[in-house]
Write a structure and sequence with these properties.
The protein is an alpha+beta fold. It is built from 15 helices and 20 strands.
């Protein structure tokens, strides 16, 4: 089949030669009146459907109705009067069995002149060979797109993560499991939407370019609008706009979309990521806990067919109910530090350093607690766990608990050693919210550039009255990592951020 050397890894001179040979073939097709890039191939049936419809064929048996399949050539065996070609589409692979007495001399000549990576269409009845391989006995073949560059080596695969992530099309082309992961992602997103739609939530769209960012502790990306002559921010969260919708009477809303945070890149962080946030009036965070459990279980069932998933060396069960612990007890059990016994930054910093944890000199008490959570507790939470009762200092938009004004009705959900969701009983007292903004402003003045700025328009909205509300943010990328057994967020984002 001409060249079968790896495309993405071929050395410069060798790759140039292969490209030149393929371009020459394309020109030869044109000179014969054959368009190497035709417009369509009607009547095509996906390979998975062809396989499902013909699984019952016995060796040597042939189906009655011809099928039309299309996809990329990934392998070929044989020459002369008989050839076998592996054809792959999005959902599977099927063998094409080409014989000169059935396909004809012109068809065989075309098929034998094609290269790995070429996209073709083929027609013929489905048969099962005497060796048991389900095949299309080809009676017609068409070139649908000439591949002018050789594909990655099918057996070696793409080993260089730089190539995999920068040229994702090669990764998708060469690895069926990678394609499957992104199909799982799409199914999970559809299932989450379906779950909320079925429960009366309204999907809304709020600004991505915002005059005032908010809803999380994070550094924003800043851009400039020339006509308005003002700086705008890529949103770090849609929270404050979705709450405005609750104030306006929509009562149950959600938004699924991109958020942007100008922060570091890690196995669980990408500066552009996908989040779904939900807000429901007249419920609290306990109701949201149960909803999250149900929604994640529904997404898993729809996306992978089960609530039990394999992640690394663990079997993780996503069906409700999930384990529940308070943040204080979780930190005490894993680090030996009782944060209630260290109510200020110097005391907690000393305790953390004494226990061997990182604790920077310039971090506030709230940042230190969050750092202790990240270092000590989070990595231990493999099975789904809801951690609740957070200090007020960590949660500027959550209602205080009735039993302790220094704690708030907030929870975070963890699985596979990482946070996947965050939720509150939302603060709806405008005076209390103003005080939280004042506290955040003090943190900003003390050097915390991730602290929430004061949003006067949001305060004005709260002064019109927001009903009791339960809010939730679920990280879609991390959920898909869990469902597809991926250890890095870059594996589940088609085009992740990369260093130049």
């Amino acid at each position: 089949m001409g060249d079968e050397t790896p495309g993405a890894e071929a050395p410069g001179a060798g790759l140039d030669r292969l490209i030149a040979e393929r371009r020459a073939k394309a020109e030869a097709f044109r000179s014969r009146g054959l368009d190497p890039f035709p417009r369509s191939f009607p009547g095509r049936t996906p390979v998975a459907e062809v396989r499902a419809a013909h699984e019952g064929l016995a060796p040597g048996e042939e189906g009655e109705t011809p099928v039309r399949v299309a996809g990329r050539i990934t392998a070929r065996r044989g020459q002369g009067r008989v050839a076998f070609v592996d054809l792959e589409d999005r959902d599977g692979r099927i063998q094409l069995w080409a014989a000169a007495d059935r396909l004809g001399p012109e068809g065989m000549e075309l098929l034998l002149s094609l290269d790995l990576g070429d996209l073709i269409g083929a027609e013929g009845p489905v048969t099962r060979t005497r060796r048991g391989e389900l095949s299309v006995a080809v009676t017609g073949v068409e070139l649908l797109a000439k591949s002018l560059r050789p594909p990655p080596d099918k057996h070696a695969g793409l080993r260089d993560p730089e190539v995999r992530f920068r040229q994702r099309y090669l990764d998708l082309m060469s690895d069926e499991d990678v394609r499957r992961a992104f199909v799982v992602r799409a199914r999970a997103i559809a299932a989450v939407r379906r779950y909320l739609d079925d429960r009366g939530f309204v999907e809304v769209e709020t600004p991505v370019l915002q005059p005032m960012y908010g809803g999380a502790s994070a550094r924003p990306f800043v851009t400039h609008h020339n006509t308005l002559d003002r700086d705008l921010y890529l949103r770090i969260a849609p929270e404050l706009y979705l709450k405005r919708c609750i104030v306006g009477g929509l009562e149950k809303v959600y938004e699924l979309g991109k958020d942007f945070r100008n922060e570091g890149v890690s196995f669980k962080h990408n500066p552009e990521f996908t989040m779904i946030e939900t807000y429901e009036a007249y419920v609290d965070y306990r109701h949201v806990m149960a909803m999250l459990e149900e929604m994640v279980a529904a997404a898993a069932t729809s996306a992978v067919g089960a609530t039990r998933v394999r992640w690394r060396d663990h079997d993780i069960e996503l069906a409700p109910p999930w384990r529940r612990i308070t943040l204080r007890e979780g930190l005490r059990d894993t680090s030996g530090i009782d944060i209630a016994a260290h109510p200020d930054a110097p005391s907690l910093r000393a305790a953390m350093r004494g226990a061997g944890y990182d604790a920077a000199d310039d971090e506030t008490w709230a940042k230190l607690v969050d750092g202790l959570l990240t270092q000590a507790l989070e990595p231990t939470l493999i099975q789904p766990t809801i951690v609740h009762e957070y200090p007020l200092a960590l949660s500027p938009f959550a209602k205080r608990t009735p039993h302790d004004p220094d704690l708030v009705e907030r929870f975070e959900a963890f699985a596979a050693g990482m946070e996947i969701a965050n939720a509150f009983s939302e603060l709806n007292d405008p005076d209390d919210q103003r005080e939280r903004f004042r506290m955040a402003q003090a943190d900003r003045e003390a050097g915390d550039d991730e602290a929430q700025p004061t949003d006067e328009d949001f305060l004005a909205a709260l002064e019109h009255g927001m009903p009791p509300t339960g809010g939730l943010g679920l990280g879609i990328d991390r959920l898909v990592m869990l469902l597809t057994d991926r250890a890095s967020i870059r594996e589940v984002i088609l085009f992740p951020a990369m260093r130049s």
